[in-house]
Amino acid sequence: MVFKMNINIIKKIVRGILTILFIFCSTFSFAVMEDGVFKEFFDTGEVKRLATYKDSKLNGYFNTFYKSGKLKGEGLYVDDYLEEKARGYYPNGVLELEVNYKKGKLHGTSKSFYEDGTPKSVGYFFEGKRDGTFKEFYKDGKYNYEMQYKMGVEDGVMKEYSKDGYLLRQTVFKNGIQTGLIREFDEQGRVVKAFEAYNGVPSGTIKEYYSTGELKSESIIEEGKIKNAVIKEYYKTGELAREVNVVGGLRQGLFKEYFENGELKILGQFVDDVRDGMFKTYYRGGKLKNEKTYDKGKKTMSISYDINGELLLEE
């Protein structure tokens, strides 16, 4: 479902930015230190981290390094709190992350980059909480995802784009809950699926469309599932292609499929989501082509006829 997929998208948007916390904050939980420069080394002797202590607190600029000696991260501590701008780098020296801190919390613009230096994501934090628009980009600079936040909570429109720059999905959140109209688009910007969500759960009529705009199918969903409804599918011409009843989320009762001219093509019955009883298939013009008998989904008989009604096969 679109609903589940979009939740994963939201998490992905900020994953890269929050990685900065592990670069800068995971290694300075030491005992009280004397004033001066603190050094930590890899087992092989290379410098791993440099930090400055004053009044037994982290105060001043610090650096972390790769084994190669290249800079991995840099930032500023004031009385044990991260402050101002902090940066993280790829092993090739290209900037990977750039964030801002205030009293140890992410505060201000946060950016991440691909290894070639092109922007990957950008967003804003307020006192440690996402606030405003978060965006993620493809390597060529086109939008990938876009999400609105309000003090750490999803609030507003979420958009997902194709690599060609076309809008693929649009969802609305309010106070962290998916609500309102959810739409999916093809790469030409035309709606291919639309439905409503209430209190985070898809509900109401779900409609799918052909790329040319004609209705393809419609059904009813309750609490995120198709429960009790008549599912209908259509040809591009608008003619009904097939229909079946759904009760309790299972196909039940009469099933019909039609030719584009409206003539009956298949007639049968479902019981608890499996074929049961007689299924008949017709030629154009209405003559019987095949009839099959099912017992709880298992075929027990099949008879086929030619266009003139003569028996072709019985099994």
Brief digest:
This protein has 315 residues and is mainly β.
Which helices and strands appear, and what pairs or packs with what?
Blueprint: H1 2-18, H2 20-25, E1 36-41, E2 47-54, E3 57-58, E4 60-65, E5 71-78, E6 81-89, E7 95-102, E8 105-106, E9 108-113, E10 119-126, E11 129-130, E12 132-137, E13 143-150, E14 153-154, E15 156-161, E16 167-174, E17 177-178, E18 180-185, E19 191-198, E20 201-209, E21 215-221, E22 229-234, E23 240-247, E24 250-258, E25 264-271, E26 274-275, E27 277-282, E28 288-295, E29 298-305, E30 311-314
Antiparallel strand pairs: 1-2, 2-3, 2-4, 4-5, 5-6, 6-7, 7-8, 7-9, 9-10, 10-11, 10-12, 12-13, 13-14, 13-15, 15-16, 16-17, 16-18, 18-19, 19-20, 20-21, 21-22, 22-23, 23-24, 24-25, 25-26, 25-27, 27-28, 28-29, 29-30
Structure in words:
With about 325 residues, the protein is mostly beta strands. It has a domain at about 1-175: Alpha-Beta Complex (Outer Surface Protein A, domain 3). The protein is built from two helices and 30 strands. The chain has helices at about 1-20, 20-25; strands at about 35-40, 45-55, 55-60, 60-65, 70-80, 80-90, 95-100, 105, 110-115, 120-125, 130, 130-135, 145-150, 155, 155-160, 165-175, 175-180, 180-185, 190-200, 200-210, 215-220, 230-235, 240-245, 250-260, 265-270, 275, 275-280, 290-295, 300-305, 310-315. It has a 30-stranded antiparallel β-sheet that branches. A hairpin with a 5-residue loop joins strand 6 (about 80-90) and strand 7 (about 95-100). The chain is elongated, with a radius of gyration of 30 Å. The model is unreliable at about 1-30 (pLDDT under 50).
